[in-house]
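cron nightly-structures :: item 1 of 1
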Amino acid sequence: MKPKQVMIYVAAAIAILAIASGCHRRFGHGDFPEKALEHIDDRVADLNLTETQQTRYQELRVRLAADLEKLKVDHKSFRDQFKARVNNDNAEVTEITGLIREKSQTIPTTVSRYLDFFEEFYAMLDQTQQTELRNLFRKKMNRYWD
């Protein structure tokens, strides 16, 4: 399998896990988009983007921030609906599983959208930066593969 394909599959898996968990452990309950973007900004800063790349990244970041904020609102709405149904003494199990099933159907679209963000970012990097990013990615993933 090509390194780019591996990165895409692993990124998809990470995105699914992040969405499923609500990213509470790493990024906190109330400040998810800000903390996630700070984390991404720290990693992007290590790549020493050119001025042109930095401008393109900021444009991408604005779109990503809006999307993450929408994800946060959607997650809160889902959580409130789920909590209400679980705490309802007369709730049918099919209502609860139906809500979860409905939410799970949005995951592939969400993962695809974040993969698109990643591919757009990756495409704006030069060869050296791409290599640096792949090496960092392998290093992080090797913790789980070993």
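cron nightly-structures :: done
The radius of gyration is 18 Å.
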